[in-house]
Structures are given as structure tokens and as C-alpha cells.
Design goal:
Strand 12 and strand 13 (141-150) form a beta hairpin. This protein has helices at residues 11-18, 171-176, 179-187; strands at residues 5-6, 21-22, 32-33, 38-45, 48-56, 58-63, 70-76, 78-79, 97-102, 104-109, 116-122, 128-137, 141-150, 161-163, 165-166, 195-203. The chain is built from 3 helices and 16 strands. The protein has a single domain, classed as SOS response associated peptidase-like (hypothetical protein yedk fold).
């Protein structure tokens, strides 16, 4: 599953790339996006597409095993089973669709305790798109998650799953299609020849960036 990606372009560059308006709210974002932290999304609002900041991950309530009391929710940042209770209500709702801008995403590779980062990019695309869904949550305000699918052969040496990646010609269909379109995207295999892989010696686990503390957390 995808638990780390980057968007190494400014908000203005991302908005220009997708030809959308930039939301008036600030875009102070970490270099690397991890679950529970803010990232950029493109969504439709009042008949136009805008680039906004949201928290990556739908909050899933948690309770302490010791006390039984509520604790910090878990950020569910990947969408695998569209029939599950968390996704089935919004899966067929175009108003809950979004596009997640990405410059590269990573998977962990190696032995436990010494895993390293392997990065994947889309060939000749400085920014590419991940199919996402969003909603307004009580806990964290606007949140988003990314749709996953079975990997293609280019990613198979590292992981058996990958994000559902969109080509520019797919944007309208993703944002406006029905549930059958969502399922079709998840069933589709992204072309192997468009994936570039970079293995690194960088440790998978690093100190997380200081979390943003918006008023809704």
C-alpha cells in the first residue's frame, strides 16, 4: 500500500499544471506526504476545479486497549475494498471524487528493520495524478484517500499493490463518472512502460515532519 509520496512542486505550479484555481487558504506543506498530514488535492467546487489542502487519511475511530477510552483516530489513507463501510457510501458519488497530485510515490523494500525506499514515477510526467476520494470529517475537517489496485509488472518486484494512476484524458471521467467507472479504473492495469523505478539506500523510516495543528484537530 502507498504510505509515502511527494509533491515537490509549488501550489502555483500544481494549479497551473492541472489548469485549476488555487484555493485562498495557505499551502504550507511538508516535502514528503505521510498519513495524517496535509497534502494537495484537486476537486470540483461550485462548477470549477480548485486546488485545496486537506489531511491525507479518513479518520477511523480508535479506542485504547488498556482503558477502552477514545484515542487519536487512525488515518486510513488507501482505498482497497470499495464495498467496505468506509467507502461504499461515497464510492458512487462524483462530488466526493478528487485528484491527488504526485511527483513520486514510494514503497518499502528489504528486510524488516532495514527497509529502504524505492521510488516510482511516471515517465516524462513531472506531476501525475492519483485517483482519490474526499469528504468533510468531524475530526480533521476535509480529508482524502487514494484508490489502490493490483500492481503492474513494473512494480511487482517491490509490491503487489499500486495507486490507481490517471492520464490527463481520464480526469473528466474520474471526476464525473458513476460507480461503474470507479470499478473500471480499479480493474485497469496501468502501462508498465510508463513507470520508472529508483531504488535507494535511504531508510524507510525517518523522523516525521512536525504535524500541522489546524483548529479542527
Amino acid at each position: 500500500m502507498c504510505n509515502l509520496y511527494t509533491e515537490r512542486k509549488s501550489a502555483a505550479e500544481v494549479a497551473a499544471h492541472f489548469g485549476v484555481d488555487l484555493a485562498p487558504s495557505g499551502m504550507n506543506l511538508p516535502d514528503e506526504t505521510v498519513p495524517g498530514y496535509p497534502g494537495m488535492v484537486v476537486r470540483e467546487a461550485e462548477g470549477r476545479r480548485v486546488l485545496e489542502k486537506m489531511i491525507w487519511g479518513f479518520p477511523l475511530p480508535q479506542k485504547s486497549k488498556k482503558t477502552g477510552l477514545p484515542i487519536k483516530p487512525k488515518a486510513v489513507n488507501n482505498i482497497a475494498d470499495l464495498s467496505s463501510f468506509m467507502w461504499k457510501f461515497i464510492a458512487g458519488r462524483p462530488e466526493n471524487r478528487c485528484i491527488i497530485p504526485v511527483t513520486e510515490f514510494a514503497e518499502a523494500e528489504g528486510q524488516p528493520g532495514s527497509k529502504t525506499r524505492t521510488w516510482f514515477r511516471v515517465k516524462d510526467e513531472p506531476i501525475f495524478a492519483w485517483a482519490g476520494m474526499w469528504k468533510m470529517s468531524d475530526e480533521w475537517g476535509p480529508v482524502y484517500s487514494g484508490l489502490m489496485t493490483d500492481c503492474n509488472d513494473a512494480i511487482r518486484p517491490v509490491h503487489d499493490r499500486m495507486p490507481v494512476l490517471l492520464m490527463p484524458r481520464d480526469y473528466d471521467r474520474w471526476l464525473h463518472g458513476g460507480l461503474d467507472e470507479v470499478v473500471a479504473f480499479q480493474d485497469r492495469c496501468f502501462p508498465d512502460e510508463l513507470i520508472e523505478m529508483e531504488r535507494t539506500a535511504d531508510p524507510w523510516l525517518r523522523k516525521k515532519p512536525a504535524p500541522e495543528q489546524p483548529s479542527f484537530i
